[in-house]
Design brief:
By secondary structure, the chain is α+β, with helices and mostly antiparallel strands. 30% of the residues lie in helices and 27% in strands. The site of flavin-adenine dinucleotide has 40 residues, from helix 1, helix 2, strand 3, strand 13 and strand 17.
Amino acid sequence: MKNGIVNTYPSLKENIKVDVAIMGAGISAALTAWHLRNAGLTVAVFDKNHAGLGSTAASTAFLQYEIDIPLTKLKEYVGEADAVKSYKLCREAIYDIADLCKSLKPAFDFHLKPSLQYASFKTHLSDLKAEYELRKKHNFKVQWLDEDEIQKQFGFNAPGAILSKDGGEVDAYLLTHALFNAFEHAGHKVYNNTPIKQIEHTKHGVTLHTASNLKINAKKLVIASGYESLQYVSKKIADINSTYAMVSEPIEDTTFWYQNSLVWETATPYMYFRVVSENRILIGGRDDPFHHPHIAPSTIDKKAEMLRKAFSKKMPQIPLAPDFKWAGAFASTKDGLPYIGSIPERPNTYFALGFGGNGITFSVIAANIIHDLITGKKNDNAAIFRFNR
Ligand SMILES: Cc1cc2nc3c(=O)[nH]c(=O)nc-3n(C[C@H](O)[C@H](O)[C@H](O)COP(=O)(O)OP(=O)(O)OC[C@H]3O[C@@H](n4cnc5c(N)ncnc54)[C@H](O)[C@@H]3O)c2cc1C
């Protein structure tokens, strides 16, 4: 709402042939398109609605390397080496976005920001401490804060917390349009209002059938349609949840706690809060384990009030007047990792399914891997995110 419609793209008006078709025009598609723009291939992006207005517009735009599943638990699912590698890839993704933002003309706004995860209850303390030790062992820049230190630096009560140095923030909606702008300048096309109704796998690649009976012939297809992509995979790989967020009116103070870090907790589902532009405080969480595309405004009101109350209980010293509130869908996987790559039932097709609370860092990883798979380069990280894990 704050940024409005920054750019629009036409709908598809005739049958076309491209090397690579990308279905969906959110941040995952934009990053993939941007990576492919100079690969000597013709690439086109198709969205059923407007570019960037899916989950990307709902995102609270924080970049974290800590995925929704702690490292101590992830290692039980995928082994310590792959768990650490996943965390490190997410950390690299933050700095990749920083570099990418710097390289865009004009340079795109990006900030590094720390994040604090606090123990919601005393009983969570030993697990959080184990998480801290494991991350320290693998050279993540983390610091342990005890109760007094949290009170001093953050102004609220919690029994213990991990302060992580590596985090960032970027407006995913505006970045999506900036990337599409560079992509179009390289001679490629983005189409709005072009729903793909059917995917036909042919001898030469794929034929996509649009809602207005046009055909897109492509050698390769990238499915980057957010949580709606799940319908194209026969195996159940994720659950869809609803998540809620509210943002306050601007507040006069400029520094509310240590470096205005992102703050989140160990409880599941977790609540998080951060400072966003114009000195507004954004609070998110209170997830529901189901999703309906049309969540009733009364539900959003109720959830926003729960978020406000929970924040005010922690930080009564910060006056908070709610301004905007919204809901969004996000999918979560059993191990918190995304699904990236191909499946036998869909030849010549690559999925960029960056699910979970830090989907944007997963979108960066997906764009790198898919670029390599399409251009025939070996990618050593692809196996971690394979479908048959
Ligand atoms: C409230 C909320 C807060 C979040 N906060 C964060 C955060 O702080 N940090 C973070 O990293 N992540 C966050 N996320 C997650 C992040 O927003 C998503 O992971 C990311 O935006 C997914 O981008 P995407 O491009 O994969 O999907 P989307 O942005 O959903 O894009 C998919 C596009 O595909 C299109 N599409 C679907 N079906 C078709 C079809 N048949 N034909 C053509 N087009 C189709 C849709 O219209 C849509 O535009 C948050 C999510 C929510 C909901």
